[in-house]
Write a structure and sequence with these properties.
This protein starts with a helix and ends with a helix. The protein is built from 13 helices and no strands. By secondary structure, the chain is mainly α.
C-alpha cells in the first residue's frame, strides 16, 4: 500500500504540470487593435481613391463638388454633378454611392443622411430604398466587427452609464432582440453610431443586429428618400420631416413591438 501511495504522489506533480487546453486566449491588445483599424481605414480610403480615378473626366467646375457631402448644400451640388453622368455611367454612380455609404457607416462618420436624400434624387424610389437599407446593414455590421476589435474599451470608458443602461435593456429583451433592434432603428432614442459601436460590447448577436438594422432603417429612409425627390427645394434636413412622416414612423415603431406583446400574452396565458 505504501508503495502505491508513493507512486501516486510521484505522478501527481506531472498531472499538475500539464497546461490546461480550454483556457480562452486573450484578445488583441489595444495598440494592435488600433493599428489594425488604422490599416482597414487607410485601405478603405485607397479603395475610394481608386474608385474616384475610375470616374469619367469631369469639368473643372465640377471636380470640387465630387466629395463627401457634409451638409445639404454639398448634397445638392454633388447631386447636380452625378445626375449629369448618371444616364451614361449609371452603374459607376450606383457603385460610388454604395461604397461611400458603407464607408461612412463602417467608421461612424456623419453624412449618411445626406446620401440617403441624394439616393432619392438620383435613383428610382424602390431602388434607392433597397440601396440605403443594404448599405446601412452592411456598414453597421462592419462597424460591429470594428467595435469588437477596439470599441469595447472606448464605449465603456466614454459612455459607461449609457452602455450599462442599454446592457440591462438587452438582457431584459434577449428573447426579442430582433424586434428591439428594429424599434431602436425606427425611433430616435439612441443614435445609430452608438448602436453600431455598443451592440457587440453588450452582447447583441450579429444576426438580429444586421437583420434588425436592414428592416428598422427602412421607415426613416423612406422619409429621407422621398425628400430627395425634391432635393433642390430643401433648405435643411428638417424640411424632410412632417407630421405625416412622424406619424408613419410612430406606427412602424408600434408595429415592431406587436410580436413582443403577443408573445408575452401567450406566455402568460399558458403559464
Amino acid at each position: 500500500m505504501s508503495t502505491i501511495n508513493r507512486r501516486s504522489e510521484s505522478r501527481a506533480p506531472l498531472v499538475q504540470d500539464i497546461p490546461p487546453t480550454n483556457v480562452p486566449k486573450a484578445g488583441l491588445s489595444t495598440s494592435k487593435a488600433l493599428i489594425l483599424v488604422a490599416i482597414i481605414f487607410i485601405s478603405s480610403l485607397i479603395a475610394l481613391g481608386l474608385l474616384y480615378k475610375q470616374f469619367p473626366k469631369l469639368e473643372e467646375h465640377e471636380e470640387k463638388h465630387l466629395k463627401l457631402p457634409w451638409d445639404l448644400e454639398d448634397a445638392k451640388q454633388l447631386g447636380l454633378v452625378l445626375d449629369r453622368y448618371k444616364d451614361k455611367y449609371f452603374y459607376e454612380v450606383l457603385l460610388g454611392v454604395f461604397l461611400v455609404y458603407i464607408f461612412l457607416q463602417t467608421f461612424a462618420i456623419p453624412g449618411s443622411i445626406f446620401l440617403s436624400i441624394l439616393s432619392g434624387f438620383l435613383f428610382p424610389f424602390y431602388l434607392a430604398l433597397i440601396l440605403v437599407c443594404c448599405c446601412s446593414a452592411i456598414g453597421a455590421s462592419l462597424c460591429f466587427f470594428l467595435s469588437n476589435l477596439l470599441g469595447k474599451k472606448l464605449v465603456k470608458r466614454f459612455f459607461p452609464e449609457r452602455a450599462a443602461q442599454w446592457s440591462k435593456a438587452v438582457t431584459k429583451h434577449k428573447n426579442n432582440l430582433l424586434n428591439y433592434i428594429i424599434f431602436l432603428r425606427v425611433t430616435p432614442f439612441l443614435p445609430n453610431w452608438f448602436i453600431n459601436m455598443s451592440a457587440p460590447v453588450i452582447g447583441v448577436p450579429l444576426t438580429p443586429f444586421a437583420l434588425g438594422t436592414f428592416i428598422g432603417v427602412a421607415p426613416p429612409s423612406f422619409v429621407a428618400i422621398q425628400a430627395g425627390q425634391t432635393l433642390h427645394q430643401l433648405t435643411s434636413t428638417s424640411d424632410a420631416w412632417s407630421w405625416t412622416s412622424i406619424t408613419i414612423l410612430t406606427i412602424f415603431a408600434l408595429i415592431s413591438l406587436v410580436p413582443v406583446l403577443l408573445k408575452q400574452r401567450l406566455r402568460e396565458k399558458f403559464e
